[in-house]
Design brief:
binds ligand TXE
Length: about 475
Protein backbone atom coordinates (compact mmCIF):
# COMPACT_ATOMS: atom_id res chain seq x y z
CA UNK A 1 0.00 0.00 0.00
CA UNK A 2 1.47 3.35 -1.09
CA UNK A 3 3.13 5.59 1.50
CA UNK A 4 1.95 9.21 1.33
CA UNK A 5 4.46 12.07 0.98
CA UNK A 6 4.13 14.90 3.54
CA UNK A 7 4.30 17.98 1.28
CA UNK A 8 4.33 21.31 3.12
CA UNK A 9 4.47 23.34 -0.08
CA UNK A 10 0.78 22.76 -0.67
CA UNK A 11 -0.75 22.98 -4.14
CA UNK A 12 -4.22 22.77 -5.62
CA UNK A 13 -5.37 19.37 -6.94
CA UNK A 14 -7.26 19.87 -10.20
CA UNK A 15 -8.13 17.24 -12.80
CA UNK A 16 -5.86 14.72 -11.10
CA UNK A 17 -2.77 16.99 -11.14
CA UNK A 18 -1.11 19.43 -8.76
CA UNK A 19 -1.21 23.11 -9.68
CA UNK A 20 0.23 26.33 -8.32
CA UNK A 21 -2.49 29.01 -8.07
CA UNK A 22 -2.86 30.84 -11.40
CA UNK A 23 -2.22 34.17 -9.66
CA UNK A 24 0.95 32.76 -8.08
CA UNK A 25 -0.12 33.98 -4.65
CA UNK A 26 0.87 31.92 -1.60
CA UNK A 27 0.44 32.33 2.15
CA UNK A 28 2.64 30.93 4.96
CA UNK A 29 1.27 28.18 7.18
CA UNK A 30 1.82 28.38 10.95
CA UNK A 31 2.15 25.48 13.40
CA UNK A 32 -0.10 26.41 16.38
CA UNK A 33 2.10 24.66 18.97
CA UNK A 34 5.19 26.70 18.08
CA UNK A 35 3.90 29.76 16.21
CA UNK A 36 6.47 28.96 13.53
CA UNK A 37 6.04 28.77 9.74
CA UNK A 38 5.98 25.16 8.55
CA UNK A 39 5.00 25.57 4.91
CA UNK A 40 2.78 27.52 2.56
CA UNK A 41 -0.49 27.22 0.66
CA UNK A 42 -2.05 28.80 -2.43
CA UNK A 43 -4.23 31.87 -2.10
CA UNK A 44 -6.38 30.72 -5.00
CA UNK A 45 -8.95 32.76 -6.88
CA UNK A 46 -11.91 32.41 -9.23
CA UNK A 47 -9.51 31.45 -12.03
CA UNK A 48 -8.51 28.28 -10.18
CA UNK A 49 -12.13 27.51 -9.31
CA UNK A 50 -13.10 27.88 -12.98
CA UNK A 51 -10.36 25.43 -14.00
CA UNK A 52 -11.59 22.95 -11.43
CA UNK A 53 -15.24 23.29 -12.46
CA UNK A 54 -14.33 22.60 -16.10
CA UNK A 55 -12.51 19.42 -15.03
CA UNK A 56 -15.43 18.37 -12.84
CA UNK A 57 -17.96 18.93 -15.64
CA UNK A 58 -15.89 16.80 -18.03
CA UNK A 59 -15.59 14.02 -15.47
CA UNK A 60 -19.26 14.00 -14.47
CA UNK A 61 -20.86 11.89 -17.24
CA UNK A 62 -18.52 8.93 -16.68
CA UNK A 63 -18.48 9.18 -12.88
CA UNK A 64 -22.24 9.53 -12.50
CA UNK A 65 -22.87 6.52 -14.74
CA UNK A 66 -20.03 4.21 -13.68
CA UNK A 67 -22.30 2.42 -11.23
CA UNK A 68 -22.35 1.99 -7.49
CA UNK A 69 -19.98 -0.97 -7.38
CA UNK A 70 -17.20 0.96 -9.13
CA UNK A 71 -17.68 3.93 -6.79
CA UNK A 72 -17.79 1.52 -3.84
CA UNK A 73 -14.49 -0.11 -4.87
CA UNK A 74 -12.58 3.15 -5.44
CA UNK A 75 -13.85 4.75 -2.21
CA UNK A 76 -12.98 1.64 -0.24
CA UNK A 77 -9.44 1.89 -1.59
CA UNK A 78 -9.36 5.51 -0.38
CA UNK A 79 -10.44 4.35 3.07
CA UNK A 80 -7.78 1.60 3.02
CA UNK A 81 -5.12 4.20 2.17
CA UNK A 82 -6.18 6.38 5.10
CA UNK A 83 -5.80 3.39 7.42
CA UNK A 84 -2.44 2.43 5.90
CA UNK A 85 -1.15 6.00 6.40
CA UNK A 86 -2.98 6.80 9.62
CA UNK A 87 0.07 7.74 11.73
CA UNK A 88 1.34 10.18 9.08
CA UNK A 89 -2.16 11.69 8.92
CA UNK A 90 -2.32 11.87 12.74
CA UNK A 91 0.99 13.74 12.93
CA UNK A 92 0.01 16.07 10.08
CA UNK A 93 -3.40 16.86 11.61
CA UNK A 94 -1.90 17.51 15.05
CA UNK A 95 0.85 19.73 13.64
CA UNK A 96 -1.61 21.71 11.52
CA UNK A 97 -4.43 22.17 14.05
CA UNK A 98 -2.60 22.10 17.40
CA UNK A 99 -4.72 19.24 18.79
CA UNK A 100 -3.03 16.44 20.76
CA UNK A 101 -1.85 13.55 18.58
CA UNK A 102 -3.74 11.27 20.95
CA UNK A 103 -7.01 12.97 19.92
CA UNK A 104 -6.23 12.88 16.19
CA UNK A 105 -5.37 9.18 16.56
CA UNK A 106 -8.54 8.39 18.55
CA UNK A 107 -11.06 10.62 16.72
CA UNK A 108 -10.07 12.58 13.63
CA UNK A 109 -8.31 10.05 11.41
CA UNK A 110 -10.39 6.95 12.22
CA UNK A 111 -13.55 8.98 11.63
CA UNK A 112 -12.23 10.24 8.26
CA UNK A 113 -11.70 6.63 7.20
CA UNK A 114 -15.13 5.70 8.54
CA UNK A 115 -16.83 8.58 6.69
CA UNK A 116 -15.54 7.29 3.37
CA UNK A 117 -16.20 3.61 4.16
CA UNK A 118 -19.71 4.36 5.42
CA UNK A 119 -20.88 6.14 2.28
CA UNK A 120 -19.04 3.73 -0.05
CA UNK A 121 -21.26 1.00 1.38
CA UNK A 122 -24.42 3.10 1.89
CA UNK A 123 -25.01 3.42 -1.85
CA UNK A 124 -25.15 -0.39 -2.14
CA UNK A 125 -28.07 -0.47 0.28
CA UNK A 126 -29.85 2.69 -0.81
CA UNK A 127 -33.34 2.11 -2.25
CA UNK A 128 -36.07 4.40 -3.50
CA UNK A 129 -39.81 4.10 -3.52
CA UNK A 130 -42.47 3.10 -6.07
CA UNK A 131 -46.20 3.90 -5.91
CA UNK A 132 -48.80 1.74 -7.63
CA UNK A 133 -52.03 3.47 -8.77
CA UNK A 134 -55.40 1.72 -9.09
CA UNK A 135 -56.03 2.93 -12.67
CA UNK A 136 -53.05 0.94 -13.98
CA UNK A 137 -50.18 3.26 -13.49
CA UNK A 138 -47.01 3.04 -11.48
CA UNK A 139 -44.72 5.75 -10.12
CA UNK A 140 -41.09 5.23 -9.25
CA UNK A 141 -38.56 7.70 -7.85
CA UNK A 142 -35.12 8.17 -9.36
CA UNK A 143 -32.52 9.83 -7.18
CA UNK A 144 -29.99 11.24 -9.58
CA UNK A 145 -26.68 12.99 -8.81
CA UNK A 146 -26.79 16.77 -9.03
CA UNK A 147 -23.59 17.30 -11.03
CA UNK A 148 -20.79 19.56 -9.73
CA UNK A 149 -21.10 20.35 -6.01
CA UNK A 150 -19.09 22.48 -3.54
CA UNK A 151 -17.84 21.22 -0.15
CA UNK A 152 -16.36 23.80 2.22
CA UNK A 153 -15.04 22.84 5.64
CA UNK A 154 -13.61 24.47 8.79
CA UNK A 155 -10.36 24.19 10.76
CA UNK A 156 -11.49 22.44 13.92
CA UNK A 157 -11.77 18.84 12.68
CA UNK A 158 -10.04 19.25 9.32
CA UNK A 159 -9.98 15.81 7.64
CA UNK A 160 -12.96 14.53 9.66
CA UNK A 161 -15.33 17.26 8.37
CA UNK A 162 -13.70 17.47 4.90
CA UNK A 163 -14.41 13.77 4.24
CA UNK A 164 -17.83 13.99 5.97
CA UNK A 165 -18.94 16.17 3.05
CA UNK A 166 -16.92 14.75 0.20
CA UNK A 167 -17.82 11.07 0.83
CA UNK A 168 -21.60 11.28 0.29
CA UNK A 169 -21.10 13.67 -2.63
CA UNK A 170 -18.77 11.23 -4.43
CA UNK A 171 -20.75 8.13 -3.46
CA UNK A 172 -23.94 9.55 -4.98
CA UNK A 173 -22.16 10.20 -8.28
CA UNK A 174 -21.32 13.90 -8.09
CA UNK A 175 -18.05 15.61 -8.93
CA UNK A 176 -16.65 17.81 -6.17
CA UNK A 177 -14.96 21.18 -5.78
CA UNK A 178 -13.70 20.99 -2.20
CA UNK A 179 -12.07 23.76 -0.16
CA UNK A 180 -10.62 23.03 3.28
CA UNK A 181 -10.02 25.79 5.79
CA UNK A 182 -7.04 27.96 4.82
CA UNK A 183 -5.86 27.57 8.43
CA UNK A 184 -5.60 23.76 8.29
CA UNK A 185 -5.04 22.57 4.69
CA UNK A 186 -2.45 19.85 5.31
CA UNK A 187 -4.52 16.65 5.57
CA UNK A 188 -6.78 17.84 2.74
CA UNK A 189 -3.70 17.99 0.55
CA UNK A 190 -2.85 14.42 1.61
CA UNK A 191 -6.39 13.34 0.66
CA UNK A 192 -5.52 14.41 -2.89
CA UNK A 193 -2.68 11.88 -2.93
CA UNK A 194 -5.07 9.26 -1.53
CA UNK A 195 -7.65 9.95 -4.24
CA UNK A 196 -5.05 9.72 -6.99
CA UNK A 197 -3.59 6.48 -5.60
CA UNK A 198 -7.04 4.92 -5.17
CA UNK A 199 -7.75 5.52 -8.86
CA UNK A 200 -10.42 8.19 -8.49
CA UNK A 201 -10.80 9.40 -12.11
CA UNK A 202 -9.32 12.82 -12.92
CA UNK A 203 -11.67 15.72 -12.25
CA UNK A 204 -13.99 13.82 -9.91
CA UNK A 205 -12.43 15.39 -6.81
CA UNK A 206 -10.76 18.82 -7.09
CA UNK A 207 -9.21 20.46 -4.01
CA UNK A 208 -8.76 24.24 -4.01
CA UNK A 209 -6.79 25.99 -1.27
CA UNK A 210 -7.35 29.56 -0.19
CA UNK A 211 -9.16 31.91 2.14
CA UNK A 212 -12.92 32.26 2.22
CA UNK A 213 -13.28 35.53 0.32
CA UNK A 214 -10.55 34.68 -2.25
CA UNK A 215 -11.28 31.02 -2.97
CA UNK A 216 -14.48 30.14 -1.10
CA UNK A 217 -16.70 32.90 -2.40
CA UNK A 218 -15.98 32.02 -6.10
CA UNK A 219 -17.16 28.47 -5.33
CA UNK A 220 -20.43 29.80 -3.91
CA UNK A 221 -20.85 32.14 -6.89
CA UNK A 222 -20.01 29.70 -9.68
CA UNK A 223 -23.19 29.07 -11.73
CA UNK A 224 -22.20 25.48 -12.57
CA UNK A 225 -21.86 24.47 -8.89
CA UNK A 226 -25.41 23.47 -8.02
CA UNK A 227 -25.19 22.56 -4.33
CA UNK A 228 -23.07 23.78 -1.42
CA UNK A 229 -22.32 21.81 1.74
CA UNK A 230 -20.75 24.13 4.32
CA UNK A 231 -19.55 23.84 7.91
CA UNK A 232 -18.26 26.89 9.72
CA UNK A 233 -19.31 30.02 11.51
CA UNK A 234 -22.88 31.31 11.59
CA UNK A 235 -21.81 34.71 10.18
CA UNK A 236 -20.16 33.01 7.20
CA UNK A 237 -23.21 30.81 6.76
CA UNK A 238 -25.35 33.93 6.41
CA UNK A 239 -23.04 35.34 3.73
CA UNK A 240 -23.07 32.08 1.82
CA UNK A 241 -26.86 31.82 1.99
CA UNK A 242 -27.22 35.41 0.73
CA UNK A 243 -25.14 34.53 -2.34
CA UNK A 244 -26.50 31.05 -3.03
CA UNK A 245 -30.22 31.50 -2.39
CA UNK A 246 -30.95 33.78 -5.39
CA UNK A 247 -29.07 31.24 -7.54
CA UNK A 248 -31.42 28.50 -6.31
CA UNK A 249 -28.55 26.32 -5.10
CA UNK A 250 -29.17 23.51 -2.63
CA UNK A 251 -27.62 24.47 0.71
CA UNK A 252 -26.50 22.45 3.72
CA UNK A 253 -25.24 24.74 6.50
CA UNK A 254 -23.69 23.29 9.68
CA UNK A 255 -22.94 26.37 11.76
CA UNK A 256 -22.07 27.41 15.30
CA UNK A 257 -23.45 26.23 18.60
CA UNK A 258 -23.71 27.22 22.29
CA UNK A 259 -24.72 23.84 23.59
CA UNK A 260 -26.36 23.30 27.01
CA UNK A 261 -25.33 20.45 29.32
CA UNK A 262 -28.14 19.78 31.86
CA UNK A 263 -27.07 17.88 34.98
CA UNK A 264 -29.94 16.80 37.26
CA UNK A 265 -29.53 15.80 40.91
CA UNK A 266 -30.69 12.26 40.07
CA UNK A 267 -27.80 11.73 37.60
CA UNK A 268 -24.78 9.48 38.07
CA UNK A 269 -22.53 12.37 39.07
CA UNK A 270 -19.25 10.49 38.66
CA UNK A 271 -20.09 9.63 35.05
CA UNK A 272 -21.50 13.09 34.38
CA UNK A 273 -18.29 14.76 35.59
CA UNK A 274 -16.03 12.36 33.68
CA UNK A 275 -17.86 12.93 30.37
CA UNK A 276 -18.36 16.65 31.01
CA UNK A 277 -14.59 17.12 31.13
CA UNK A 278 -14.53 15.82 27.53
CA UNK A 279 -17.64 17.64 26.33
CA UNK A 280 -16.19 20.87 27.76
CA UNK A 281 -12.56 20.71 26.66
CA UNK A 282 -11.99 18.09 23.94
CA UNK A 283 -10.07 19.58 20.99
CA UNK A 284 -9.44 22.63 23.20
CA UNK A 285 -13.22 23.22 23.23
CA UNK A 286 -13.10 23.73 19.45
CA UNK A 287 -15.91 21.37 18.52
CA UNK A 288 -19.30 22.77 17.52
CA UNK A 289 -20.84 20.06 19.73
CA UNK A 290 -19.00 21.01 22.95
CA UNK A 291 -21.25 21.75 25.91
CA UNK A 292 -20.12 25.22 26.97
CA UNK A 293 -23.12 26.04 29.19
CA UNK A 294 -23.33 23.64 32.15
CA UNK A 295 -26.66 23.84 34.02
CA UNK A 296 -26.57 22.05 37.38
CA UNK A 297 -29.53 21.37 39.68
CA UNK A 298 -29.00 23.61 42.72
CA UNK A 299 -28.99 20.79 45.30
CA UNK A 300 -25.82 19.31 43.78
CA UNK A 301 -24.28 22.56 42.48
CA UNK A 302 -21.60 22.91 45.15
CA UNK A 303 -20.61 19.25 45.01
CA UNK A 304 -20.42 19.29 41.21
CA UNK A 305 -18.48 22.57 41.20
CA UNK A 306 -15.91 21.39 43.75
CA UNK A 307 -15.27 18.02 42.06
CA UNK A 308 -15.38 19.37 38.47
CA UNK A 309 -13.12 22.39 39.06
CA UNK A 310 -10.57 20.21 40.85
CA UNK A 311 -10.33 17.90 37.83
CA UNK A 312 -10.18 20.81 35.36
CA UNK A 313 -7.34 22.41 37.31
CA UNK A 314 -5.45 19.11 37.10
CA UNK A 315 -5.75 18.83 33.28
CA UNK A 316 -2.48 18.99 31.37
CA UNK A 317 -1.96 21.67 28.73
CA UNK A 318 1.12 20.76 26.72
CA UNK A 319 2.94 19.62 23.64
CA UNK A 320 0.46 18.02 21.20
CA UNK A 321 3.11 15.35 20.58
CA UNK A 322 3.07 14.39 24.25
CA UNK A 323 0.66 11.54 25.10
CA UNK A 324 0.12 13.13 28.53
CA UNK A 325 -1.36 16.33 27.09
CA UNK A 326 -5.11 16.67 27.57
CA UNK A 327 -5.16 19.99 25.70
CA UNK A 328 -2.89 21.16 22.89
CA UNK A 329 -2.71 24.58 21.29
CA UNK A 330 -5.62 26.63 19.99
CA UNK A 331 -5.64 26.88 16.22
CA UNK A 332 -4.30 30.40 15.73
CA UNK A 333 -3.17 33.58 17.49
CA UNK A 334 -6.32 35.50 16.47
CA UNK A 335 -8.53 32.68 17.73
CA UNK A 336 -6.63 32.51 21.05
CA UNK A 337 -7.05 36.28 21.42
CA UNK A 338 -10.79 35.94 20.65
CA UNK A 339 -11.22 33.26 23.32
CA UNK A 340 -9.18 35.22 25.92
CA UNK A 341 -11.30 38.29 25.16
CA UNK A 342 -14.36 36.31 26.30
CA UNK A 343 -12.61 35.51 29.58
CA UNK A 344 -12.09 39.25 30.06
CA UNK A 345 -15.74 39.84 29.11
CA UNK A 346 -16.82 37.31 31.76
CA UNK A 347 -14.94 39.36 34.38
CA UNK A 348 -16.41 42.61 33.02
CA UNK A 349 -19.91 41.07 33.21
CA UNK A 350 -19.31 40.27 36.89
CA UNK A 351 -18.46 36.59 36.61
CA UNK A 352 -15.93 34.68 38.69
CA UNK A 353 -13.11 32.66 37.11
CA UNK A 354 -12.96 29.47 39.19
CA UNK A 355 -9.93 28.06 37.36
CA UNK A 356 -7.88 28.89 34.24
CA UNK A 357 -8.52 31.95 32.10
CA UNK A 358 -4.93 32.71 31.24
CA UNK A 359 -2.53 32.05 28.37
CA UNK A 360 0.11 29.38 29.01
CA UNK A 361 3.63 30.49 28.02
CA UNK A 362 6.07 27.64 27.53
CA UNK A 363 9.83 27.94 27.10
CA UNK A 364 11.89 26.41 24.29
CA UNK A 365 10.26 25.05 21.13
CA UNK A 366 6.71 25.81 22.28
CA UNK A 367 7.49 29.38 23.38
CA UNK A 368 5.47 30.85 20.50
CA UNK A 369 2.53 28.44 20.83
CA UNK A 370 -1.14 29.35 21.28
CA UNK A 371 -1.88 27.64 24.61
CA UNK A 372 -4.32 28.49 27.40
CA UNK A 373 -5.65 26.89 30.56
CA UNK A 374 -9.08 25.22 30.53
CA UNK A 375 -11.40 27.76 32.13
CA UNK A 376 -14.50 27.53 34.33
CA UNK A 377 -16.68 30.58 34.99
CA UNK A 378 -19.57 30.99 37.46
CA UNK A 379 -21.86 33.76 38.69
CA UNK A 380 -23.25 34.97 35.35
CA UNK A 381 -26.94 34.88 34.41
CA UNK A 382 -27.94 32.73 31.45
CA UNK A 383 -28.57 35.98 29.55
CA UNK A 384 -24.98 37.22 29.86
CA UNK A 385 -23.09 37.59 26.54
CA UNK A 386 -20.58 34.97 27.68
CA UNK A 387 -23.50 32.55 28.09
CA UNK A 388 -25.14 33.41 24.75
CA UNK A 389 -22.29 33.84 22.24
CA UNK A 390 -20.19 31.04 20.76
CA UNK A 391 -16.66 31.21 22.20
CA UNK A 392 -15.31 28.03 20.58
CA UNK A 393 -12.51 27.53 23.07
CA UNK A 394 -11.77 25.78 26.41
CA UNK A 395 -14.20 27.98 28.37
CA UNK A 396 -17.37 26.79 30.13
CA UNK A 397 -19.90 28.46 32.40
CA UNK A 398 -21.63 26.91 35.44
CA UNK A 399 -25.26 27.96 35.97
CA UNK A 400 -27.53 26.55 38.75
CA UNK A 401 -31.22 25.80 38.16
CA UNK A 402 -34.13 24.98 40.49
CA UNK A 403 -36.74 23.32 38.31
CA UNK A 404 -36.78 21.25 35.12
CA UNK A 405 -38.80 24.05 33.49
CA UNK A 406 -36.14 26.63 34.39
CA UNK A 407 -33.41 24.39 32.98
CA UNK A 408 -35.23 23.94 29.67
CA UNK A 409 -36.08 27.65 29.41
CA UNK A 410 -32.45 28.69 29.95
CA UNK A 411 -31.10 25.94 27.67
CA UNK A 412 -33.37 27.19 24.85
CA UNK A 413 -32.64 30.87 25.46
CA UNK A 414 -29.87 31.38 22.85
CA UNK A 415 -30.03 31.89 19.07
CA UNK A 416 -28.38 28.48 18.60
CA UNK A 417 -29.79 24.96 18.62
CA UNK A 418 -27.19 22.41 17.63
CA UNK A 419 -26.76 19.77 20.39
CA UNK A 420 -27.70 19.29 24.06
CA UNK A 421 -26.64 16.86 26.77
CA UNK A 422 -28.92 15.69 29.59
CA UNK A 423 -27.74 13.77 32.67
CA UNK A 424 -30.53 12.04 34.62
CA UNK A 425 -31.46 8.55 35.81
CA UNK A 426 -35.17 9.28 35.37
CA UNK A 427 -36.12 7.86 31.98
CA UNK A 428 -39.40 9.82 31.81
CA UNK A 429 -37.52 13.02 32.47
CA UNK A 430 -35.00 12.11 29.75
CA UNK A 431 -37.77 11.76 27.15
CA UNK A 432 -39.65 14.82 28.43
CA UNK A 433 -36.61 17.13 28.41
CA UNK A 434 -35.28 15.83 25.07
CA UNK A 435 -38.69 16.52 23.54
CA UNK A 436 -38.59 20.19 24.56
CA UNK A 437 -34.98 21.14 23.84
CA UNK A 438 -34.35 23.33 20.76
CA UNK A 439 -31.62 21.18 19.25
CA UNK A 440 -30.89 18.89 16.33
CA UNK A 441 -29.12 16.38 18.59
CA UNK A 442 -29.79 15.41 22.23
CA UNK A 443 -27.42 13.08 24.09
CA UNK A 444 -28.71 11.53 27.33
CA UNK A 445 -26.07 10.20 29.77
CA UNK A 446 -23.43 10.37 27.04
CA UNK A 447 -21.73 12.81 24.63
CA UNK A 448 -20.46 12.54 21.05
CA UNK A 449 -21.77 9.00 20.69
CA UNK A 450 -22.13 9.03 16.90
CA UNK A 451 -23.99 6.65 14.59
CA UNK A 452 -23.34 7.88 11.04
CA UNK A 453 -26.84 6.78 9.97
CA UNK A 454 -28.47 9.43 12.17
CA UNK A 455 -29.48 12.94 11.01
CA UNK A 456 -26.78 15.45 12.02
CA UNK A 457 -27.33 19.19 12.24
CA UNK A 458 -28.98 21.99 14.13
CA UNK A 459 -31.87 24.46 14.21
CA UNK A 460 -32.10 28.25 14.55
CA UNK A 461 -28.64 29.86 14.00
CA UNK A 462 -26.94 26.46 14.09
CA UNK A 463 -27.81 25.83 10.48
CA UNK A 464 -30.08 24.49 7.79
CA UNK A 465 -30.42 20.88 6.66
CA UNK A 466 -28.93 17.68 7.98
CA UNK A 467 -25.88 15.56 7.18
CA UNK A 468 -25.40 11.87 7.86
CA UNK A 469 -26.86 8.67 6.49
CA UNK A 470 -29.65 8.96 3.94
CA UNK A 471 -30.01 12.69 4.77
CA UNK A 472 -26.63 13.29 3.09
CA UNK A 473 -27.41 11.05 0.11
CA UNK A 474 -30.74 12.85 -0.36
CA UNK A 475 -28.97 16.22 -0.19
CA UNK A 476 -26.53 15.28 -2.95
CA UNK A 477 -29.20 13.86 -5.29
CA UNK A 478 -32.31 15.19 -7.04
CA UNK A 479 -35.47 13.06 -6.75
CA UNK A 480 -37.40 12.54 -10.01
CA UNK A 481 -40.83 10.91 -10.07
CA UNK A 482 -41.58 8.84 -13.17
CA UNK A 483 -45.23 7.85 -13.71
CA UNK A 484 -45.97 5.11 -16.28
CA UNK A 485 -49.52 4.23 -17.42
CA UNK A 486 -49.95 0.60 -18.51
O1 LIG B 1 -15.12 29.54 10.23
P1 LIG B 1 -15.41 30.27 8.89
P2 LIG B 1 -13.78 29.55 11.02
C1 LIG B 1 -17.38 28.72 14.31
C2 LIG B 1 -16.58 29.16 15.50
C3 LIG B 1 -15.40 29.84 14.89
C4 LIG B 1 -16.11 30.55 13.75
C5 LIG B 1 -15.13 30.94 12.69
O2 LIG B 1 -17.31 30.14 16.21
O3 LIG B 1 -14.80 30.80 15.73
O4 LIG B 1 -17.03 29.59 13.24
O5 LIG B 1 -14.34 29.77 12.44
C6 LIG B 1 -14.68 29.33 4.39
N1 LIG B 1 -17.53 31.92 0.98
N2 LIG B 1 -17.06 27.38 13.87
O6 LIG B 1 -12.89 30.73 10.75
O7 LIG B 1 -14.78 31.61 8.76
C7 LIG B 1 -13.38 29.35 5.12
O8 LIG B 1 -12.30 29.57 4.23
C8 LIG B 1 -17.15 30.62 1.01
C9 LIG B 1 -18.08 26.38 14.06
O9 LIG B 1 -13.25 28.21 10.72
O10 LIG B 1 -16.85 30.17 8.76
C10 LIG B 1 -13.36 27.96 5.73
O11 LIG B 1 -12.95 27.00 4.77
N3 LIG B 1 -16.39 30.07 1.98
C11 LIG B 1 -17.89 25.29 13.04
C12 LIG B 1 -14.83 27.74 6.09
O12 LIG B 1 -15.56 28.65 5.29
C13 LIG B 1 -16.00 30.87 2.99
C14 LIG B 1 -16.49 24.78 13.02
C15 LIG B 1 -15.13 28.01 7.56
O13 LIG B 1 -14.65 29.32 7.83
C16 LIG B 1 -16.35 32.25 3.05
C17 LIG B 1 -15.57 25.86 12.85
C18 LIG B 1 -17.15 32.76 1.98
N4 LIG B 1 -17.51 34.04 1.94
C19 LIG B 1 -15.88 27.14 13.26
N5 LIG B 1 -15.79 32.78 4.19
C20 LIG B 1 -18.78 24.08 13.29
N6 LIG B 1 -20.10 24.24 13.26
O14 LIG B 1 -18.26 22.98 13.43
C21 LIG B 1 -15.13 31.77 4.80
N7 LIG B 1 -15.25 30.63 4.08
Amino acid sequence: MKRLRLETHIRNFINGHYHEPINGMRVDLIEPATGKVYGSRPESSAADVNLAVRAAEEAFPAWSSCGINTRYAIMNRMADLITANSELLVEAESMDNGKPRSLARLVDIPRAEDNIRFFATAIRHDASEAYNMEMGAINYTLRQPIGVVGCISPWNLPLYLFTWKIAPALASGNCVIAKPSEITPLTASLLAQIAAEAGLPHGVLNIIHGSGPAAGQPIIEHPKIKAISFTGGTATGKRIAATAAPMFKKLSLELGGKNPNLIFADSDLEKAIKTTLKSSFANQGQICLCGSRIFIERSIYDEFKERFVKKVAAMTVGDPKDEASNLGALVSEPHLEKVLSYVQLAKDEGGTILTGGERVQFKGDLAGGYFMRPTVIEGLPHTARVNCEEIFGPVVSLIPFDTEEDAIMMANATEYGLSSTVWTSDVSRAHRVADQLHAGIVWVNCWLLRDLRTPFGGVKSSGVGREGGYEALRFFTEPKNVCIKY
